[in-house]
Write a structure and sequence with these properties.
The chain has 242 residues and is α+β, with helices and mostly antiparallel strands. It has one domain: Galactose-binding domain-like (Jelly Rolls), CATH 2.60.120.260. The termini are far apart. The N terminus and C terminus are likely disordered. Strands 2-3-8-5-6 form a five-stranded antiparallel β-sheet, with no helix packed on it. Strands 1-7-4-9 form a four-stranded antiparallel β-sheet, with no helix packed on it. The longest helix has 21 residues. The structure holds calcium ion (CA). The site of calcium ion has 9 residues, from strand 9. Calcium ion binds next to strand 9.
């Protein structure tokens, strides 16, 4: 068996492994809570953060801010202090239908194949059950930027209602791009959060502090075995914007 044949065998095995991994992938939702509204930190280096070269634009639908609540707070890298509505997106339930959405469109000028999304974190903080979370996550691709695909609805009800800070982390069971086994966050053009009213104990709206969306770091995407590196080589520049 010569070296070239061995490399082909290795590459083939990696392709098979990746295929099996993708088909078995599931979204892993990790819910965390803390007594403090300021415990969970926001990232200012994620791809949808305001000012990031990877963010092309933001659009909001159906949101009416209450008490200074605003959607710009969701991607400014700041979670804010206790009871600080200026650093949260909050719509009073009586202002609407317990539903608003925000869409972050990515700049794919230097990533024409779109982005792979590996981690999504959402942070909420308040009291009186408004630290709960409930939203649908959707995405579109560079191939069909106007078509949004649902990745499911995610919910957080604290085990201890006295805990006023919460965080949902979405990852993938394979360690790669987030996938439900059918749809995978690759080739991504836009990410959309469709914010919903609570599921329990009421249907009131919550105070979201930050939405963070992360792509693989170059070291994670590129430092792989030889065979997988050959497969990823063509794509890594597009998928590793930093
Ligand atoms: Ca951020």
């Amino acid at each position: 068996m010569n070296a070239k044949f061995s490399l082909c065998m290795l590459a083939g095995a990696v392709v098979l492994l990746m295929t099996v991994t993708l088909s078995q992938a599931t979204i892993v939702q990790t819910n965390e809570e803390n007594s403090s509204q300021t415990f969970f930190d926001a990232s200012s280096r994620d791809v949808i953060n305001a000012g990031a070269p990877t963010l092309a634009g933001t659009s909001v639908s159906g949101f009416t801010g209450f008490g200074g609540g605003n959607t710009a707070a969701l991607n400014n890298g700041i979670t804010g202090g206790a009871n600080d509505l200026s650093q949260g997106a909050f719509e009073l339930e009586s202002a609407g239908d317990n539903n608003w959405s925000i869409t972050y469109t990515l700049d794919t000028t230097n990533a024409p194949l779109g982005f792979s999304i590996k981690v999504i974190q959402t942070i909420a903080a308040w009291g009186s059950s408004r630290q709960h979370q409930h939203y649908e996550l959707l995405y579109s691709t560079v191939a069909a930027p106007g078509t949004f695909i649902s990745m499911g609805t995610f919910n957080l009800v604290p085990t201890n209602e006295a805990d006023q800070g919460t965080r949902i982390t979405l990852t993938d069971s394979s360690g790669g791009a987030i996938s439900d086994g059918v749809h995978t966050l690759v080739g991504v053009k836009s990410i959309q959060f469709n914010v919903l009213g609570e599921t329990s104990p009421s249907t009131q709206m919550d105070v979201y502090r930050e939405f963070d969306v992360f792509v693989p770091e170059p070291s994670a995407a590129c430092v792989l075995a030889v065979g997988s590196f050959l497969i990823w080589q063509k794509r890594s520049r597009a998928e590793c914007p930093f």
